[in-house]
Amino acid sequence: MKKKIIVRADGNPLIGFGHIYRMLALADMLKDEFYIVFALFPTAEFILNEIKNYSDEVILLPGALPFKTADEITDTETIPFDLANILQGDEIVVLDGYYFGDNYQQAVKERGCRLVCIDDLASRHFFADVVMNHAPGLNPLKYKKENYTRLFTGLDYAILRLPFLKSFNIKKNGFRKAFISLGGADHFGYSEKLLNSILQLDIFDSVQVLCSSSFNDELINTLKKTEGESGKVQLHFDLNAEQLVEVMDNCTHAFVAASTVLLETYARGLTCFAGFYTRNQQFIYDGFVKNKWAGGLGNFKSLDTNSIHRVYKMENEIEPLKFPLQSAKNIHSLFKNL
């Protein structure tokens, strides 16, 4: 019988769907040898459909996340323990989100389960057996944790869906094709801002923009209008991993948020430029820019055409990935030994 993993993560159009997508990636790596259960609050239908593709069971919990952005959430805001009727005590529980405080973590441990926490912020104390943060170059001393807690960081533990970890062709000089993504939710409309700035530069032969049905109607209509007026723009909605890899593999450059989508485009060998708009993107942003794996666009709130052009001129200093990441086998080994 397969050992059971309970995945607890949530998403909505304001906080985004990054936690869920990251857990889909983890499930993709582990689903052949573990029984995967997703437990979450009700969410968008397109996300639920994706979850069903990667899991053995889905449990919708009563309740909903507070409708706040990641930057508005404080460490004192937590949700009550909601797995009491689900856990038997022999499972691995994986928590990915900002609302799982001390009481929640300790309740999991008290039931005898192994606990893994996926983290972006290093802002709270951890009682987990394992903490994972795939931001590169992270100082482990930033973490407050129990003596038994093991910390795994960097791209050796990048949590990406398997299609992104396959071999790829090195991008060659020739046509320049840009890929744009702000993730599964773009509450602030930065996709439009980024697209317009890139079009003004008139550097790229085509621009591929990743969208989702969670975008608000005004943003979708504006992007569709730009697509209709420009012969260079193509919008893509709610792509699965294989479809997204196909789009990325036909691009040469990426302009993305410093979130999972940055790791995905880097893993496909694109020349990456990244910005941030929430604090949970800061560690990944700092690590990629410091290592010259991405050009730093800074805070998207202050982004303009001139700043994009200034960073783009430094593209020869950026070092795209040459060989596929090997994180899947590392993560698989980690969970097998829990």
Describe it:
The chain is an alpha/beta fold and 338 residues long. The chain has 2 domains: 3-163 and 327-336, Rossmann fold (3-Layer(aba) Sandwich), CATH 3.40.50; 166-317, 3-Layer(aba) Sandwich (Rossmann fold). It is built from 10 helices and 15 strands. The protein has helices at 18-30, 45-54, 102-110, 190-201, 217-229, 241-249, 260-267, 282-290, 305-312, 327-336, and strands spanning 3-9, 34-40, 57-60, 92-96, 114-118, 125-126, 130-133, 144-145, 150-153, 177-181, 206-211, 233-237, 253-257, 271-276, 294-299. The strands form 3 sheets. A 7-stranded parallel sheet has the order 3-2-1-4-5-7-9, with helices on both faces. Strands 12-11-10-13-14-15 form a 6-stranded parallel sheet, with helices on both faces. The radius of gyration is 20 Å and the shape is globular. The two termini are 16 Å apart. The mean pLDDT is 93.
Briefly say what this structure is.
The protein is 30% helix and 22% strand.
Low-confidence stretches: none
Strand ordering within the main sheet? 3-2-1-4-5-7-9
Total helical segments: 10
Largest sheet: 7 strands, parallel
- CATH fold-level assignment of the largest domain: Rossmann fold
Beta fraction: 15-25%
Coarse morphology = globular
Share in helix: 25-40%
Instruction: Please state the structural category.
Output: alpha/beta
The assigned CATH architecture of the largest domain is 3-Layer(aba) Sandwich
Quick check: average pLDDT? 93
Number of strands: 15
What's the gyration radius in Å? 20 Å
Distance between the termini: 16 Å
For the record, the CATH class of the largest domain is: Alpha Beta
| Overall structural domain count | 2
H and E string = EHEHEEHEEEEEEHEHEHEHEHEHH
